[in-house]
Specification:
Strand content: 5-15%
Strand order of the largest sheet: 1-2-3-6-7
Protein name: NADH:flavin oxidoreductase/NADH oxidase N-terminal domain-containing protein
Structural class: alpha/beta
Number of helices: 7
Shape: elongated
Family: Belongs to the NADH:flavin oxidoreductase/NADH oxidase family.
Low-confidence stretches: 1-26
Radius of gyration: 20 Å
Order of helices and strands: EHHEHEEEHEHEHH
Cofactor: FMN
Largest sheet: 5 strands, parallel
Number of strands: 7
Mean pLDDT: 73
Helix content: 25-40%
GO molecular function: FMN binding; NADPH dehydrogenase activity
Domain NADH:flavin oxidoreductase/NADH oxidase N-terminal: 36-184
Amino acid sequence: MLVLILLNFMLHICTLWNNSSIQPPIRELINVAVQLKNKARSVLKIIDSFIQAIGAFKLALRQSPYATSEGAKDRSAEINPIVTTGYMLSKMERRARQGKRLAYLSMTEPRVDGDKNADVVGTKTYFSWLTLIWNGTITKAGECFSGNRHETLQKIVNGDDRTLIGISRYFTSNPDLVNRLKNSCPVTPCDRSTFFTNDNKRHLNFSKFGDGEDHSGDYVQPTALV
């Protein structure tokens, strides 16, 4: 059983420890390395506890370097997210060299900010630096697959032998997503506004490529079996 750290408190820690809670002029008197060490201490203690309890190979860590939700700072902050995330990854790689390599790292690109779509127009994110620090398996999710980007997806997957792509939201609008990617067929856009609703609309009426939509079951209500 693979245990993936997706608990809210862990996700919040992984973003909030990037929160600039120490303000100038005090910040200018404190070494950046000391700040990073102090902010990462709690996260590392939790990770080490999991490693001791179940083993590193059953554990995975998810981080969102470019997220700005929950008070985390973006690339305009005094301490760039690359610095804070890079520090955490260096700690994970050091543990890996001691025989405690995590199953994988899940890195989320800024497709969403919290539960809303992120504004990624005109922005670029670079995750090439990850492989310079972490030598294990990486799962990328978010903006790395957004819409009809088959060539980009293939380039990422074929770039090395340890990068995986996590796709979830496009399965809601493409029940045959695997075949569409395999055959380079157009991908139907997903509808985030219907991800968490109490009816079938935009859940069961999406069809396979080339078939028409069926709206007959949009508002079907559950009925008792007895």
